[in-house]
TrEMBL record:
It holds the Pfam family BPD_transp_1. InterPro entries: MetI-like, MetI-like_sf, UgpAE/MalFG_permease. Residues 95-311 form the ABC transmembrane type-1 domain. PANTHER family: BLL4140 PROTEIN, DIACETYLCHITOBIOSE UPTAKE SYSTEM PERMEASE PROTEIN DASB. It is a multi-pass membrane protein. It comes from the Bacteria. Keywords: Cell membrane, Membrane, Transmembrane, Transmembrane helix, Transport. GO terms for biological process: transmembrane transport. Belongs to the binding-protein-dependent transport system permease family. PROSITE patterns: ABC_TM1. This is Sugar ABC transporter permease.
Amino acid sequence: MSVDAPASPAPEAAPPATGATPTRRRRRSLTPWLLIVPTLVIVIAAMGYPIFWQLKTSFQKYGLKQQFNPDLPPDFVGFDNYVKVLTNPDFLAVLGRSILFCFLAAFITVILGFLLALLMKRVGKVARLILQIALLLAWAMPVAASMTVWVWLVDWRNGVLNYLLGKLGLDVEGHNWLADPTTFFVIALIIVIWAAVPFVALSIYAGLSQISEEVLEAAQMDGATGWQRTRHIVLPLIAPVLSIVLLLQIVWDLRVFTQIKFLQDAGGVANATDLLGTYIYKMGVGSADFGSAAAVSVIMLLLTIALSWYYVRSIMKEED
């Protein structure tokens, strides 16, 4: 009768791999900070001091004496500049016009950009290339150069607009379209939108290019119309892109300055056509009231944050 040999003990399981060593893990955790710190330093150096100077000046009485005599300290006036600005009817009118102009320009720009992006998706390769080159040329044109052309087009003495309307039988010879605030802002809207549509259209087109054609074809086979595919498939998928470009347009159109200043110099009524940008310029450079101009700048910054906060929260929720 054989006796079974005792079973040998099973070998101990090897300890699980721990991956990277603590030193390597520490290096990996520090790498993002090492990459982002230089950018933060540049941003703080480029934007921190101007914002600090504006905020400090908004609580001071700062005029030409302090501008040309650094040894003469400005007087601290607390919130007097803010009170003076916020109780000024002219500022309240400028604020209302700026907000209305900002939203009209931003929403019309995004709508036109979306339509152009859809057009680029549907046309052939050659037509798409021509359209993209035209958009890039319009977008790359310097504002001063484009405004020189626009001012020539609407000039009341020998502008192209009055010439063409006169050929159609309308009595517009010598009519100054910039003298009336309504037509002034219509022209300003056209110019601002014309310059901003290329960026929006190309950005939305990039978002449309990421949508799978199979999804759209499946919806079409299920009987969905073009409008239904756009509303229920395309728009939800590119909603993040739309939110970002709309946010950027709101910020940019709120602080528009160059286009309004050129049109005012070409024959517009300055006091009736001021927006926040030109109002700050005239209050600071024209009236040498740098304290009040700084206060308006701070209010404009807070207004920008308030108007864009909803979209910032939406973008953050989508990222989460």
